[in-house]
């Protein structure tokens, strides 16, 4: 086994000393070469997806933290529970130095490969760590000053690590306090957004401490069982690890559950008094916003046609692998406060997907509000989104407007062609996403909004970020769960999709697609994707005679057949049919009944076809 460099000073602090011993025991040397271990983009994307909730909640908070310490030559890092760096938000000058020691997304800073360091050692020790300069086991990392702290999940256990790294002087105490508070904010967001959470209670013995980092936070399901509580809450209530046993509300508090709910449903903004057993009293703010939304919808009986109950995510899966995976991924964030970003060529079904997401979510009883950012003049989008007071600007309607953001309250807002949103407005949208509050143009009271956000773009947003047309911070915010819908020509379920569209288009008249028609459909390039297919089938249906129930190539528009594609003509189809009929009759030695049975037609039809041939 290799030994630690005996000339290197072993730092005194207990945790650091233990870490150095682990490093030495693992055979690390102080002058170890940089491992060539950057994860390929696809694997990093998998890790990001596996940690989608953590990343979605941490990212904006990391950006906020970075604004506070901007220009300090530092970076804020988020790593997963194995020390793999998932996200970095920081100053460009430091990013360059950090990259030289691979302090960047896609690289693991687990202690076993990177030696003593704040991320890896905080994980190994399961506690906040400061690792300063020569505390680092590897010489090349000794220009770094890092503080890190674990982020705990609502179900207990460490989800990841939050870290500030810098090459500059850092007030260790200040940085540790900052990172600790930031991690707690992320932990609180994860608790609040638990999908089963019906009631959220924030509490503190002093009303003035509500809405501060000192408040306790606990979430309960509809039945009054505690789902999670933050660490401050556990201390305030004097309960142990709330995750192990879900204590009932009534075991902790004297106040009746129903009294609390009545208060929450009538005036959730006013604090109320919460009495715990043993005489302790707390000021509490209670939110029960999701109680209504979580009630099951009677209308979604399984045998009801999709068109009437609203298409759900499952309805979209007709067998294509890419679509199936998109459906699976979207399912994961249903009901969470994580935006969904859908990218894909025009007509690939992005809006239909957004609607299906809405209909599959607990907000399905709320409104689905769509806004196409490309279709509204840039100077009006803001008014469309935020609404305005009467007379707020020239041309404003006399009575004012609520704005789409407030209209979508309790439901889903679909921002189509988000890539076309003007840059200035992108900044405003980002702020709304962070604060979840809107103020109408021209003033008026600020309102809290609760909505699911789905965005779509046919232009790749990442490229728009590179060309400066889209704000990277908004992109990160929106892309925590991003999926790409395949073009129609790439889809393996095109036949099933065509049949589905026919059924939706003429529900009372069962129509068939002839084999030759399916052939044409399979070979066409479909530049307009599903929209084009739908139009073609609509037209073909209109071309059918009153007694016809099968769409043949003759019913299709002539320009459907691209240059270079050979269109099966009626003649060649007839010839093929006659050949098939004659061969079948010959195989059955002239037995017309047997041949007709094999062909699935009546004897009379077979005779007619033979006569025609
Ligand atoms: N899974 C589907 N089943 C049946 N019809 C669909 C499906 N997906 C999309 N369509 C139909 O295809 C057409 C285009 O769909 P949609 O508007 O959702 O596409 P889009 O990607 O949002 O287009 P654009 O980028 O041009 O806004 C619509 O008429 C829609 O009804």
TrEMBL record:
Keywords: ATP-binding, DNA-binding, Nucleotide-binding, Transcription, Transcription regulation
Pfam families recorded: AAA_lid_14, GAF, HTH_8, Sigma54_activat
Sigma-54 factor interaction domain residues: 316-542
CDD domains for this protein: AAA
InterPro entries: AAA+_ATPase (IPR003593), AAA_lid_NorR (IPR058031), GAF (IPR003018), GAF-like_dom_sf (IPR029016), Homeodomain-like_sf (IPR009057), HTH_Fis (IPR002197), P-loop_NTPase (IPR027417), Sigma_54_int (IPR002078)
Name of the molecule in the record: Sigma-54-dependent Fis family transcriptional regulator
